[in-house]
Amino acid sequence: MTSNLLRRAGLAALCWALLGPAFAQSGGAGRFYEDALRRYEAKDFDGSIVQLKNALQADRSLLPAHLLLGRAALDSGDPVTAEVAFGEALRLGGSRAEVAPLLAQALLQLGRHGALLADARLQPAGLTGTPLFRLLLVRSAAQGDAGDLNAAMASIELARSVDAKSPDSWLAEVSLRIRQRQLDLARKAMDRALALAPDNPEVHNQNGGLAHVNGQASVARSHYDRALKLDPLHRDARLARAALSLDLNDLPTLRSDLKELQARHASNPRVAYLRAQLADREGDRAAAQAALREVTGMIDPIPIDVIRFRPQLLTLAGLAHHALNEQEKAKPFLEMVSRQQPGNPIAKLLAQVLFDEGQVENGIQTLETYLRYQPRDGQALALLASGHTTQGRHAKATAIMQEALRGQDNADLRGVLGLSLLRSGQYASAQNELEAVVRRNPKLEQPSFSLAMLYLRTGQAAKAVPLAQALAKQRPGNASFLHLLGLAQSSAGQAAAARQSYELALRADPELLSAKLSLARLDAQQGQWAQAEKRLIDLNKEKPGAVDVLLELAALTQQRGRLEDAERWLQNAVSAASPRELRPDIALVGLRLRQGKPAAAVEAGRQLLAKAPEEIPALVAMAQAQIAAGESSGARNNLAAASRRAGYEGSQLIEIAVLQLQVGDLANARHTLEKAQQAGAPDAKLLGLMATVSLRQGQLAEAQSLADKLLKLQPRAATSHLLLADLANARQQTAQATQHLRKAHELEPSTATLMRQFLHLQRTKATKEALQLAEAWLRRQPNDITVLRAQAELQGALGQWSGSRQAYERLRVLQPNDAVVLNNLANVLLQLGDTRQAVQIAEQAVKASPGQVVSIDTLAWALHKAGQNERALILLRDAISRAPDISELRYHLAAVLTALGRKVEAKAELQAALSQPQTLASVNEARALAATLN
Predict the structure, then answer these.
(1) 656-715 pLDDT, tens per residue?
(2) What is the pTM of this model?
(3) First-to-last CA distance in the chain?
(4) What is the DSSP letter of 748?
(5) Which residues have CB under 8 Å from 908's CB, separation 6+?
(6) CB–CB of 174/193 below 8 Å?
(7) How far apart are CA 509 and CA 505, in angstroms?
(8) Which of 896, 860, 903, 902 is nearest to 878 (CA)?
């Protein structure tokens, strides 16, 4: 007989609770890692973790160690450590194909389903084969837990189309069918899994679970026994058998299983709950209560937003609190319902408070509820428009204000409309609205101020100056108006007057930061660099952590070529910025791209998107970083999201379309440009982009028509002739293409137009002419990095190693920390047989851009050539952790292992490398090595 303590717990609920997720560079570091790998392969996960931590203590940047630590932690039931390790592996450049399914599994075990499904790193796009299969099944489990059963089944079907022979997709379907109470379909899916893998312990574990749910206790017991015979360490099968033993009152088996579980999984709340049940059956009320306290102590600290995706934990927590007679605590776990009240006029004040706290979406929702009752409240509409504007939805804000003006025309609403148009990039329409408001009432300060700023933004400083003067005269002591006047005067070339206005603004308000920053900018514009920097450094001491000051310091040091200082200031700005402040993150992405660090730029972009996953500037910045890093699929997704969010803001749409063209997303680029056309984007730029899309989609007649219109509009513009050259190339009219490219360069002699010629000549095998063109340009522009790089690469491709070396040496002088230049120079030195210097230069390349697989591989190969195979080994392990599908890395690893006498391992790596000979540049060398091993 069950005591009062647990009487109402119920065996059915307990069964569901306890079945659990069965349904759901130093030599020392290298030696520690190799030992950890051997331990892991022997399933000594704890020993492996110890050695991996030793390896990471010796070298925190050892990517393979982070990756293996995540695997070992996941296998030992520590998803927290696993998540951290996998996140670090990705940060260091680990292969997304390898890490994403594992990180997703860790997040699933942590109950962080929303993060799992939303994380850009854990999206299926860009993955294939086994990694895609594994990720889809984890996502299916998360979707099922979140209640989206259709999406979960769709993920399972997609996984099955990737791998029809694995039992795992059928096991995932079993869990889903049970959740839907479709037990016949669950049985059919289980039979398919058994047919595919009759000796798989997880198949038997879940088969036991299905029988358990159907009340077939003896059948369930036989399958649990079979699972544990196949894998005695199978945690879920042991937990399920223990729960079944409790149902059957088989206390000896329950005690035996609990002893094993307590030894290996003491921190699991299901184990604690089973101990409570056993203690209760044995009449030990104090022990039962203590175990129940352990359950609630484990679960209560978990945020409710996380635990709501874990029905087993919710049930355990509810049962434990209920058994402890803690009904107030039990209720939230058993009831998760919120009610929404109708809006009333106080909603406007509430919305403003929410806006001030940064809860803009909640404020918008509050206003929308209120406006269902008072749809013509102009004040609420204006506040709602400002909320959407804050979130970047300028087109929606504009539509709201236009609708409001249909019922009532007043200056305040029209001023808000003007601001919405201004922020959406529709400058002409915004100017018309604001000018109309100011004409009707010149004393309205906000529209006048906004119109003056619009004049400055559109290069109409001559119009801005009198407007700012009028505001300053109207409010003589207003520091903001005096500062505006200084900005207008500076833009109009009136430097002395601008300085005077800034100083007057500071007299009116000695704390006005914008005026102090403007004085520093004015110093820099006049070449007074030292004074500008001193002013900013003093300001930073005065206002430590002020983001605007830190951004200005970063901009100034970047202008002076001190990129490391600029990055330091930007990192400080990122740390000091509020969650809604995106400028430092965006600037950091841009700086790292200019430094030639695409992987670091992507990492900065991820941090940016974590702060603002739906903001257009964040999406665009991340896409730019992904393009530079070769992550085209992710870039396409982010650009498509940005295009949707941009509404009909012309300038933003043009920027997005250019990037969509860059990643070859022609259909979406056309759609974006059509939206820009409706928004009234500039004709010439739009024509050129539309023609380019038509050309690349093979619609040559349409492209020709658009190109002709562009040439008529801008006959002396290089872009017109470059577009005609592209059309000629599409028609295989090489001579005409060459003629148009020469004409474009004559009209606008620049690096860009020269490179178009150079690449055209290279593509058409006129390599001698291409090199002559580059040499002639470099005699006039000897420091043109782009042309020097192209010359060096072409010479290398032609086997002109001495010339290529000279060009790369020149580039190294101009860009001493350019990882690509250093890496390519190291490879040229290897071709010339200068192994010693190749190692030195390759070391510099890795230091300049840590985590770049190409540079790591080059250094490893140079070390191998120099006989330093121990160092080469750990470097190649690192590179393969980042890019496991690159066959050349496998061949290089095989060569190093052979040199170390580890021929069995070398043979396995060669087999992997030669499985895709079409992607292996050194295929002949690899086959020769394989022959020696055979």
Answers:
(1) 999 999 999 999 989 888 887 776 545 778 888 898 898 889 899 998 998 888 888 888
(2) 0.49
(3) 70
(4) S
(5) none
(6) yes
(7) 6
(8) 860
